[in-house]
């Protein structure tokens, strides 16, 4: 099949399969930590607002710490920087689980989650390797970027399912603990793949060139609000209908739709530009109305396929936006540039989580919270006009 041959070309390069496998292991917990923390804190403290505030604080801290870690990665190399940073993040995850288990004061939850902001941008490090390997092959790099976005979606497909299953089938802290083990193991073994690591060293700490950079980051932030609010509202909606244990599976359908769309998009030829980004964002804004309408009309059974449909514009949007970031980032600062973009997403997720938690507790019914991703997608579309 043409699509299979297109992606097989990437992994014919020596060393690519090894770094990809271990990067996926390291990346999977990124889809686990959010839902695991929400379910763990909501179960122990009885408050979705507190759970949303804790995750929002940790993600907001990443907006400060993430680019600093990425800058160190660019200057000193992936293998020398990622492992100690992950050790700090792992301690934060273990501390969060311990505090929740012991019902420690709420402020300790915030402190522990902030330590997790030291987690290196594993997806960015993988994209930097592809950019180094295919620096003279734009078509292969587009395919690699699409694969990486699909990999992100796989992690956010399997991560919530695994996190929710562990938290409900074993004990509330299980998702966070398993995530910490996978993160540390994956990063250590990914960093050990030296043959594909891009060279260290960088110039001035200016990750994005002037020219549409600020509006592009605004697009990332608004898209993050879509993700953060959608996750918290869906968990609360499923819980309200007595189906908390299937919340992760329902959310995974959104990631599944995005994953499939991303893989197909990677095999589609054609230039990636700001106009294509606006088309993708317009599609996302329209499709995000599906969960709102489905939740109002048919409850959880109707919501599941609506999330699948809503996800189909996500990966193409992110692939296109990330490619624009790569174009506007000096090669020696590539990891930092992509981390700044991811940080904008995480900042948006933080805001979306907090807004989603507030909405489900104060807006009368959880379904009202589905207006948040609709509005955030519209804001992203408006911001893209200046990219």
TrEMBL record:
Superkingdom assignment: Bacteria
Residue spans crossing the bilayer: 21-42, 48-70, 82-104, 174-192, 213-238, 250-268, 280-297, 303-325, 337-360, 366-384
What are the GO MF terms of this UniProt record?
transmembrane transporter activity
Which keywords does the record carry?
A: Membrane, Transmembrane, Transmembrane helix
Q: Which Pfam families match?
A: MFS_1
Concerning InterPro entries, the annotation shows: MFS, MFS_trans_sf
Q: What protein is this chain from?
A: MFS transporter
Q: Which organism is it from?
A: Streptomyces smaragdinus
Top-level taxonomy: Bacteria, Bacillati, Actinomycetota, Actinomycetes, Kitasatosporales
């Amino acid at each position: 099949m043409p699509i299979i041959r297109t992606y097989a070309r990437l992994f014919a390069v020596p060393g690519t399969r090894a770094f990809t496998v271990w990067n996926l292991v390291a990346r999977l917990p990124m889809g686990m930590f959010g839902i695991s923390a929400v379910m763990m804190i909501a179960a122990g403290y009885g408050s979705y607002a507190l759970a949303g505030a804790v995750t929002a604080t940790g993600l907001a801290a990443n907006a400060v710490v993430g680019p600093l870690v990425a800058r160190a990665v660019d200057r000193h190399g992936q293998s020398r920087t990622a492992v100690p940073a992950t050790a700090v993040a792992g301690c934060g995850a273990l501390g969060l689980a311990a505090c929740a288990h012991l019902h420690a004061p709420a402020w300790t939850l915030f402190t522990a989650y902030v330590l997790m902001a030291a987690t290196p941008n594993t997806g960015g490090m993988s994209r930097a390797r592809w950019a180094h390997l295919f620096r003279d092959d734009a078509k292969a790099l587009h395919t690699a970027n699409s694969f990486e976005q699909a990999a992100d979606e796989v992690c956010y497909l399997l991560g919530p399912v695994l996190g929710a299953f562990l938290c409900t089938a074993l004990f509330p802290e299980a998702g966070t603990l398993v995530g910490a083990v996978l993160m540390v193991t994956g990063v250590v073994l990914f960093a050990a793949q030296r043959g594909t690591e891009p060279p260290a060293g960088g110039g001035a700490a200016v990750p994005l060139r002037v020219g549409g950079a600020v509006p592009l980051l605004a697009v990332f932030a608004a898209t993050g609000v879509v993700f953060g609010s959608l996750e918290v509202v869906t968990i609360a909606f499923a819980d309200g209908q007595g189906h908390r244990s299937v919340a992760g599976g329902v959310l995974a359908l959104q990631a599944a739709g995005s994953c499939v769309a991303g893989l197909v998009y990677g095999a589609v030829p054609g230039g990636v530009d700001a106009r294509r980004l606006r088309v993708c964002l317009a599609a996302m804004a329209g499709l995000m109305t599906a969960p709102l309408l489905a939740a109002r009309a048919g409850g959880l059974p109707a919501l599941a396929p609506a999330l699948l449909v809503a996800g189909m514009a996500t990966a193409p949007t992110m692939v296109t936006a990330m490619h624009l970031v790569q174009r506007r980032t000096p090669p020696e600062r590539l990891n930092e540039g992509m981390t700044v973009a991811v940080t904008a997403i995480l900042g948006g997720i933080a805001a979306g989580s907090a807004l989603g938690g507030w909405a489900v507790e104060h807006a009368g019914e959880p379904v009202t919270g589905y207006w948040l991703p609709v509005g955030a997608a519209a804001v992203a579309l408006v911001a893209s006009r200046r990219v």
